[in-house]
Amino acid sequence: MSLIIRERSLGDAGFAWVPTGPGPFPAILVIHDTHPWCGGWASRDAAVLAAHGMAALAVRDDLALAASALRAAPFANGRLGVFAVGAGAARVAAALADIRPDAVALHAPSPLADDALDGLTVPLFLSHGTADDIMPVETSRRLQARLPQVEAHYYDGLDHGLNDEDAANGNTERWVNFLRRHLDSVERAR
Question: Taking the chain, what is the end-to-end CA distance rounded to the nearest angstrom?
Fold first, then answer.
């Protein structure tokens, strides 16, 4: 059996998960909280994105370096998306000017990202469990009310991790499709 995704070096920015095909592929930064137990989730999400035709890099440190390296990679189509969870959304908000994403998907964003995302003009995906006791659902509701081009999904009675297999898988399908829809292009968008 052949691999459908593989690691590709981005130098100082780390290793991205990339489909084995010829590309070019949309590029996605995957950003979770910097807490050590979150690193595995970011890598998992990067592999999921790669398995669905996108080049993805789980980022812990320098978002601007990662964005620049991933956008310029020979396998990338020049379009950059972001998928962030929880406190990762605040990291994205703080670095928006440096990373210049073409689309953003956030799950259960931190309240620290709330005001900092006010200038966001690219398509935004939001998802949140209404019983999230880690990140308040009100943050997503405020962002949805204030920002243009928002696709929002709320999961009644579910927690931060969407403690229901069907809801969790359905949500993953939704944010993967959102990123594909907004970032796919046959031509390199430079």
Answer: 35
Helical residues (DSSP H) of the chain, grouped into ranges: 39-51, 63-72, 88-99, 137-146, 165-183
Instruction: Give the CATH number for residue 136.
Output: 3.40.50.1820
| Residue 110, domain extent | 5-183
Is the pTM higher than 0.90? yes
Residue 188 counted as domain residue: no
Residue 97, class by beta-carbon neighbours within 10 Å (0-12 exposed, 13-18 middle, 19+ buried)? exposed
Domain tally for the chain?
A: 1
State the sign of the Cα–Cα–Cα–Cα dihedral 99, 186, 8, 37: positive
Average pLDDT over residues 40-52: 94
How would you list the strands of the sheet with 15-19, edge to edge?
Answer: 5-9, 15-19, 55-58, 25-31, 76-85, 103-107, 124-129, 150-155
pLDDT in tens, 33-42: 877 666 688 9
